[in-house]
Design a protein that fits this description.
Helices cover 33% and strands 21% of the residues. With 344 residues, it is an alpha/beta fold. The chain folds into two domains: 241 residues, NAD(P)-binding Rossmann-like Domain (Rossmann fold), CATH 3.40.50.720; 77 residues, TATA-Binding Protein (2-Layer Sandwich), CATH 3.30.310. The strands form two sheets. Strands 3-2-1-4-5-6-7-8 form an eight-stranded mixed beta sheet, sandwiched between helices. A six-stranded antiparallel beta sheet has the order 9-10-14-13-12-11, covered by helices on one side. It is globular, with a radius of gyration of 20 Å. The chain starts with 8 loop residues before the first helix and ends with a helix.
């Protein structure tokens, strides 16, 4: 065994992976969309497993209540004000210096998903919203790249693996995204860190199968866990693809990828905050914005973001003009606050 593989020796000795499978992992690229609860476990597991390139994308920054379930981060990361993608990269580089790690601070949307997914061998769901999941589903089918869906709430989680052209996709299972406000959120229902670790570990294991060249071992079911009552079930999905009329699989319609569906705003789960994005917004100079806001409230800035507090609101502005407005879940109110302090 070569010195490059020494650190993975326990994994290589698992006969169904072996040295050949490990070498394929080291040559592969995974796109992880979201570096929060699911995403941090995914990134941690795959970095240690030796996936050769990890591209981490996240739109958010860290708060103390993230630490209950987002395993990569520390109190020091919260205090630093770093975006999650940057903090994740910093930790992962200290865990495995042999692999390449790319951090992207951005909202995944129709304008950037093609570039983010370019050269990726798998797309992994670490998100907290269905709009992004439907976008990932569109991209996976259009670009013929496998992806793994995962979602958690309370003590329940579910996951499924999508192999374009072989298995049912997310729209076979769910033709339309749930309307805003129609499903519970972690703010109302809560969430246990234990279910995050279970679902993300299954997602990571499916990724290891695919990236090591073992697609035959991939799950073809929707897998559901409810940990509090110790329930587990698997739902076969073959018939959905074979007998259905999925707009993505059968009609090759990709409205989220084309930007026809989806919005540029989002109420952030469990945050009492709204994200505002602007498709035609010019880049913002954080340095100039700091000068403008000084004296109006508390301002803190680093190279990745600017934070401004003017009670009862907290504004976090990114160089691309995107902003997270804390202190409200009302989109109209958030836009008003943005216009008042940042400008239209």
């Amino acid at each position: 065994m070569t010195p490059e593989l020494d650190r993975y020796v326990r994994q290589v000795r698992y006969p169904r992976l072996g040295e050949a499978g490990q070498c394929r992992l080291l040559q592969s690229t995974a796109l992880i969309c979201g570096c929060g609860a699911l995403g941090s476990v995914l990134a941690n597991t795959l970095a240690r497993a030796g996936v050769g390139r990890l591209r981490l994308v996240d739109r958010d920054f860290l708060e103390t209540n993230n630490l209950q379930r987002q395993v990569l981060y520390t109190e020091e990361d919260v205090a630093s004000g770093l975006p999650k993608a940057i903090a994740a990269k910093n930790h992962l580089q200290r865990i495995n210096s042999q692999i390449a790690i790319e951090a992207v601070v951005a909202d995944v949307d129709s304008s950037n998903i093609a570039a983010l997914a370019k050269d990726a061998d798998i797309l992994l769901d670490g998100t907290d919203n269905f709009e992004t999941r439907f976008l990932l589903n569109d991209a996976a089918l259009k670009f013929n790249v496998p992806w793994v869906y995962g979602g958690c709430l309370g003590a329940e989680g579910q996951t499924m693996t999508i192999l374009p052209g072989e298995t049912a996709c997310l729209r076979c299972l769910m033709p339309e995204a749930p309307p805003p406000g129609s499903t519970p959120t972690c703010d109302a229902a809560g969430i246990l860190g234990t279910i995050i670790n279970v679902i993300a570990s299954i997602e990571a294991n499916e990724a290891i199968k695919i990236l090591s060249g073992h697609r035959e071992a991939v799950s073809r079911t929707l897998t559901i866990f409810e940990l509090w009552d110790n329930r587990f079930r698997q739902v076969k999905l073959d018939s959905l693809r074979e007998t259905g009329n999925c707009p993505a699989c059968h009609r090759r319609e990709f409205p989220w990828l084309e930007g026809v569906r989806g919005s540029h705003t989002a109420v952030l789960c469990g945050r009492n905050a709204v994200q505002l994005s602007f498709a035609d917004r010019q880049e913002v100079s954080l340095e100039h914005l700091e000068e403008k806001l000084t004296g109006l409230g508390m301002v803190r800035r680093n190279r990745y973001l600017l934070r401004f507090e003017a009670a009862p609101y907290q504004l976090t502005v990114f160089p691309d003009g995107r902003a997270i407005i804390g202190g409200t879940e009302d989109i109209a109110e958030a836009k008003s606050v943005y216009a008042r302090y940042i400008g239209v």
